[in-house]
Structure formats: C-alpha cells, structure tokens
Amino acid sequence: MKLYYSPASPFVRKVMVCAILRGLDKKIEHLPSAAGPVKRDHTIVAQNPSGKVPTMLLKDGSAIYDSRVICEYLDNIGRAPKLFPKGAARWPALTLASLADEALDAALLCRYEVVIRPKSKQWADWSKGQMEKITSSVGELEKTWLKHLRSELDIGTVTAACLLGYLDFRFSDYDWRKSHPKLAAWFKTFSKRPAMAKTTPHV
User: I need a labelling partner for 191 at 20 to 30 A (CA). Which of 57, 146, 172, 176 fits?
Assistant: First the structure.
C-alpha cells in the first residue's frame, strides 16, 4: 500500500494511528505530497479528484479516499482488534468519529484563513464561527463522551484524540484543557499509546 502523506495533516495522522493499531504501518509506503486548498498537487489529483491527503493506492493500483474510507479499509485487513465495531456499538463509534472529523474540518478552515488567505481578505467572523464549532465539539467530548473515551478503543476515540492533538499542534493559544480537565486527563493518558506517540506532528 502507498499513502500520499503529510505529517502535519490530522487526517493522515488518523490513518497512521489506525495502521499502527492494526499492525499494518510497516506495509504502507509514504509518498510525498504538496496538497493545498489553493495550489493542488496534480500527482494526487490524478488519483483523487479532490487532490487531498490522505489518498491511498492499493496493490492493484486503485485509489481509495478519504481518511474514513482508508481507516475502514485497514480495519478489514490484518489481525489486530478491530476499530470499527459491529452491531449496536458501531453507531456511537461512528458518531463520535464524525463529531471529531467535523471539528477538524473547522480547525483546518481556521488555519487556512490565517496562513493562506491574504490578510486584507481575512474575515474575523468566519474564523469566530469555525472556532465556535471547535469549542462546542470539545465541550461535547467532555459532557457526553468521556465514558466512551475511557472504555473503548475504536475509530471514535482515535479521531477524538487526533482532534485534540491537532489543536495542541496548530492552536497552542487555545487552552481547551482549562475548561475540560477530565478530557485533558484522558488525552494525557491516551497520548502515551505508541500509535499516538509515533505520529505526533513536529513540523
């Protein structure tokens, strides 16, 4: 398997955390990428029309995307415990993953607004609206999902951890821990897992 890769992408990190947990990370070759919301990487576009990472190439040359699809694909190969539950447990896991994915989408929009959009065209209310989505999502993690986070290892907990890790990485001035001490305690413990430690972004 080959993966168009960016170490700063929280969605790529989610894929790699799942790959490590499934014992498949050594079977994935990292391909360089220059994906961006304005200037796209046409090498990726040839495989995925959106031009986004993560995009994975399978042994037969076909491509699969986005992170949700790739993670579920990885969950169907290998022998480690599955991250996508079956039956009734599947729906809370997927709902939690969606909550965190949507907050990550908002975080990326905030990031792009600051680092890509010219300063004269930046819209403060837009960034505020995206940050409100992040704040309400983090609040929901502590309010509703702590029991799940503490007791389950599934695609939902992995995605939530990648969200909090991305906030630490790109929004260091956003102190989510102060208002969410129980969530912070969970994340401190979860971050020590080898799959998380090995994928911590440093760029």
Answer: 57
pLDDT digits (tens, 9 = 90+) for 122-148: 999 999 999 999 999 999 999 999 999
Architecture of domain 87-197: Up-down Bundle (1.20)
- The type of residue at 11 is F
- CATH code for the part of the protein at 2-75: 3.40.30.10
Looking up tokens 């090498």 gives 43
What is the DSSP secondary-structure string of 56-113? EE-TTS-EE-SHHHHHHHHHTSSSSPPSS--GGGHHHHHHHHHHHHHHHHHHHHHHHH
Calculate Rg over the CA atoms of the chain. Answer: 17
Question: Rounded to a whole number, what is the largest CA-CA distance in the chain?
Answer: 52
Residue 203: the pLDDT is 65
